[in-house]
Task: structure prediction
Amino acid sequence: MSFVDSYLESYVEINHEGIALPEGLRLEQREEGLVLVGEEKRYGSPLSVDFAAGKAAHRRRFGGGRGQLIAKACGLSKGITPSVVDATAGLGRDAFVLASLGAQVLLIERVAAIAALLADGLKRASRHSDTAAIAARMTLRHGDAAQSLVELVASAHFTPQVIHLDPMFPHREKSALVKKEMRLFRELAGDDNDAPRLLEAALDVATHRVVVKRPRKAPPIAGPAPQHTLEGKTSRYDLYVHRSLVR
Ligand SMILES: C[S@@+](CC[C@H](N)C(=O)[O-])C[C@H]1O[C@@H](n2cnc3c(N)ncnc32)[C@H](O)[C@@H]1O
Result:
């Protein structure tokens, strides 16, 4: 069991010293929660996960419910609420939307510092009356889903009906043009160039479908072609129906 998982199981303090970070970045436990801090000029405000306030709270209340693209892509409809593995959890925004709509969600994140921020956000969400029931539907595992998806799903005793993937899309624009908070995140997450391998692993494990979030104009992940696509204003979902369900 990794230190992040043991932290989650017992809600004890995380040992930040144990997490390797790129030079110039550090994790700090502040009164408001765990934050990732970098030089302000380059990285702007510290990064943290807060499900009870800000954008997450706004989207929970006014986001459009099951009419949202992510809900349609994952197959949430009236009376149907699949269990979803978010195998590229990041800061948990998509996972939180799905859990807000009633889905059980297993979040998998491979970067230890990001998993630690998520763990801290989930801990605080579980103590807040607006978000406690939602957080109770969210389980976090720290690990690499491209390499150990079967083991991670089994360790959480989770039924992987739908697998949601949102790998980082390699960006070409110069870092000066990238929003500061994205720079911090990218510094940690990198480019996810192994996305084709992750897609293969997900197709082996999902019992119903795999859904992949892409920038609207980006090509699909290399590998088998998606059976369907759903297009939104800025992003697109590529849908891969489970092999046994394709006629
Ligand atoms: C674009 S972000 C996801 C953002 C997320 N959808 C959200 O709503 O906050 C991609 C994340 O997936 C993680 N990731 C990529 N490949 C992974 C893998 N094979 N296993 C686990 N995490 C992975 C990256 O470290 C990064 O944090």
About this structure: The chain has one domain: 49-175+190-245. Confidence is low (pLDDT under 50) at residues 9-14. DSSP finds ten helices and nine strands in the chain.
